[in-house]
Write the structure tokens for this entry.
Amino acid sequence: MKLGMVGLGRMGAGMTERLRRGGHEVVGYDRDAKVSEVASLDELVAKLAPPRTVWMMVPSGDPTEQSIETLAKLVAPGDLLVDGGNSYFRDSIRRSERLAGNGVLFVDAGVSGGIWGLQEGFCLMVGGTNASIETLRPALETLAPPDGWAHVGPSGAGHFVKMVHNGIEYGLMQAYAEGFEIMKSSKLYPTLDMHQIAEVWRHGSVVRSWLLDLGARALSSDPALSELKGYVQDSGEGRWTVMEAMEEDVPAPVIALSLFRRFASRQEDSFANRMLAALRREFGGHAVKTR
């Protein structure tokens, strides 16, 4: 299929390349003229034949809102807009309803895979109508690994599931960080090799995971993570997950505490927080603060 990609950052660029390798034709636009393939959103839409599909990979909040506002004036009934950023799911519901009033289809796509998605495939959690998903199916099947995408529900459901996914991610990362700090701080065993332990846990251990693989990778090049500051940012999904847990009266202490630990990281520097920063850099290419 032919589609437009808005946002050619670390995720959008990888998705564009994977789509092209799968035989799709992609027209890419980015605010950075050095990487953009067209000069404007108007030109991008003009290069697509109706019914058009435009996939957005831009930061959540105002950048997404502005992109949708602009595209809504350029597309026509029957066209499809896809928001693949980490938008708040209630915003996605609102946007879907507004676009539907003009006959424009909308899919909210939770995308996981980070900078490794080009090679490994992107896990996709999509929300929208059956018709919208069927239109998008060829791209979804190319972007995802086998069994790596699902139509999880109506509008907003894709971003809701991705929100909870990222909340769980917070808890997993925090558990690894705390465990490694306990070992790093041991007075009885001060010579423990963090990289060696991460490597042995990767093989047969019940705590093995892709996150642990990435942690081992970070420790191999800098065993003390000395190049990093233990400052860990959050991008919103953890906060929204805790908010929804409160809204539904669901106890979620691990996710809540992992979020608060990120707040604390901005006031202190520790090995645990350097481990968290390293993991975010390794799986998603997120910016880190260095010494």
Notes: The mean pLDDT is 95.
